[in-house]
Design brief:
single chain, Maltoporin, Chain A, five-stranded mixed sheet, 6 helices
Length: 612
């Protein structure tokens, strides 16, 4: 481990000149350059996504500091856990095209990232730390802000992509390239000053078992997306979308670790409309959205879940001067869920109002303040705030030092299941409360950037579960105060055609024994670009951690592991065609991500994409 850390510190000097001026939105909900942002924001551009075709969204997120999505190296239908800065699923908020998405039928109300296809995504921003004052419940350890593809010109454009790959576990003879297949088609056209975009993505696999077993568990995923966006000049603008994501996955008995003929079908439909008006120093943006989800489990205990969320949000941004920008907004949500084991549906409303101030002095000092009042129809009002001062010291036109710090509160509303379930629910639950302090330093030159951040989070009113002697139980607020602390180092260095990206994360749950969460994690990526090919190698290190063995109900220590992936892309393979070849887990490392579950070994994938 010492050698890994030393290597990363030597290489961790951050991003190239082309990324220094990229626009950041999610940390303050006000578009600004990265230089003028008061937090360390992960920005994954369209170019980065294009370079990583062939992997999943979860696998891509795992390449960045502070982010660990467990389950990404398992069967493609496996549930995912979002251990961002040592948190869990309910502490991560997801937005898609400006709309907060969730599934209130889930025990933790989280959105299922398995549903999304990376091919449909234009860019991703991840704001780590507490952001409830801007985004509400759940934004305690991170906000994952996703923008889907929606660009069009007057000339019709058509993109077609196909991928074939193996799906081997460790020490398995190289399988068939048909074990994993992807098909993607996107059509874009501008008509009457309206940009139209439609895409269909399909993924299928039948090469590995969910648990360590002998039968394979098939998975299919389908993603359909329609976007429309105004392109005419004037103060008014609008966008609209329909997105449908479906996963149909076989799975096995997770408690006995045996093959089983179980199946999950999960469907999510999202509809949205967002008009905006901009004139002078003011801008008003509205979002209206509807989301419905259905999950059907076929197993020894079959059950069906449904949920729907209606959200309306209005924000107003006013640029009072070159130094001062004001932002305010309101939100109304109607949230409902139901499962087939109960007669009645669960329902509650959210109403919120927030205000934010961004002030920046010409000599470098800046301050972002925000506060939010959220009213839940069951447990009442809850307030959160953020104080984020930072200072920018310019060395030259393109080089600078930045010191930043923040203190923020966040909350996690109890899910509908934890409140209303007739067997285990508790209507007396109150929100979990998190307090997060982080401080960091960033240094940027023409071809490099290095960022070091330290954070500490205190968690109160943790919603826990207690078993009673008669084998019943209930959720309750644990009065123990928990602490999580950590350090993140990340960066990238560019010399001509070579780019080196690296990061290291240390995270610790103080006086706790978390499951599946490593204290140490690191990434190192090398990319070399020529006029005819793009070469890349990525190394990922995951430290020791614990997991529970359901056969013995004992915790076991899992050994650290490292994975090496290699990739080459030919942008001008034949005409407008692009060809890619990727080998993952090059050295066929043996490792365990979850006890009893199959993990990916050495695999190969081949992809072709043609643009008309």
């Amino acid at each position: 481990m010492k050698y890994v850390v030393a290597m990363l510190f030597c290489c961790a000097v951050a991003q190239a000149q082309e990324q220094l001026d990229e626009v950041i939105v999610s940390d303050s909900r006000i578009p600004k350059s990265r230089k003028n942002s008061g937090k360390a924001v992960v920005k994954i551009t369209a170019k980065e996504i294009e370079k990583n075709k062939g992997i999943s969204l979860a696998q891509l997120l795992n390449q960045y500091a502070g982010i660990y999505v467990s389950g990404s190296q398992l069967h493609p239908g496996q549930n995912l856990s979002y251990f961002i800065r040592g948190g869990n699923n309910r502490q991560v908020l997801v937005r898609i095209d400006g709309v907060v998405v969730s599934d209130p039928s889930q025990i933790e109300s989280e959105f299922d990232l398995r549903l999304l296809a990376l091919d449909n995504i234009e860019s991703i921003e991840v704001v780590k730390g507490a952001s409830s004052s801007l985004y509400g419940s759940g934004a305690a350890t991170a906000v994952i802000d996703i923008v889907t593809k929606n660009t069009a010109t007057e000339k019709t454009s058509l993109s077609i992509a196909r991928e074939w790959g193996t799906q081997n576990t460790h020490d398995q003879k190289l399988g068939s390239l048909s074990d994993m297949q992807k098909q993607y088609i996107q059509l874009q056209r501008s008509v009457a000053k309206i940009g139209l975009s439609a895409s269909i993505n399909r993924f299928s696999s039948d090469g590995m078992s969910s648990v360590v077993g002998t039968e394979t568990d098939a998975v299919t995923k389908e993603n359909i997306q329609f976007n429309a966006k105004s392109q005419y000049e004037g103060p008014w603008a609008w966008m609209a979308f329909f997105q449908r994501d479906v996963i149909d996955s076989d799975y096995d008995d997770a408690f006995a670790y045996t093959d089983a003929s179980f199946n999950l079908v999960s469907k999510n439909n999202r509809y949205g409309f967002g008009p905006s008006f901009t004139k002078g120093k003011s801008s008003v943006q509205a979002h209206l959205s509807w989301s419905d989800t259905e999950r059907n489990f076929s197993s020894n205990f079959p059950i069906n879940y449904t949920s729907n969320v209606f959200t309306s949000e209005l924000t107003w941004r006013y640029r009072a001067s070159e130094r001062l920008t004001l932002l305010t907004g309101g939100l109304v949500q109607d949230i409902r869920s139901k499962n087939s084991s109960v007669a009645d549906s669960f329902q509650h409303d959210n109403v919120a109002f927030f205000v934010s101030v961004n002030w920046q002095h010409p000599k470098g000092f800046a301050l972002q303040l925000s506060g939010r009042n959220s009213v839940h129809s069951t447990f009442g009002a809850h307030q959160t705030f953020t104080i984020n001062p930072y200072y920018i010291f310019s060395v030259s036109e393109i080089s600078y030092w930045k010191l930043f710090s923040s203190y923020a509160t966040s909350f996690i509303a109890p899910s509908q299941y934890k409140m209303f379930d007739p067997s285990y629910g508790n209507l007396n639950l109150v929100p979990e409360e998190n307090k997060t302090h982080e401080s960091g330093i960033e240094y940027v030159t023409k071809n490099s950037r290095i960022t070091v951040v330290g954070f500490q989070r205190t968690e109160n009113n943790f919603v826990d579960f207690i078993f009673y002697p008669d084998f019943t139980g209930t959720y309750y607020n644990n009065d123990t105060s928990y602490k999580v602390q950590g350090v993140e180092v990340e960066g990238n260095f560019s010399i001509q055609k070579l780019n080196v990206q690296a990061n290291y994360t240390f995270v610790e749950k103080v006086k706790q024994e978390p499951l599946r969460l490593p204290k140490h994690a690191a990434n190192l990526g090398l990319a070399y670009n020529t006029s005819k090919a793009q070469w890349g190698v990525h190394f990922r290190y995951i430290g020791t951690r614990s997991d529970q063995n359901f056969a013995t109900y004992m915790n076991e220590k899992l050994t650290a592991f490292g994975l090496v992936d290699a990739r080459v892309s030919f942008p001008d393979f034949i005409g407008n065609a692009t060809a890619t070849l990727a080998v993952t887990n090059v050295f066929d490392a043996q490792y365990t991500e979850f006890i009893g579950y199959s993990a990916l070994g050495r695999n190969i994938s081949i992809g072709l994409q043609y643009a008309f």
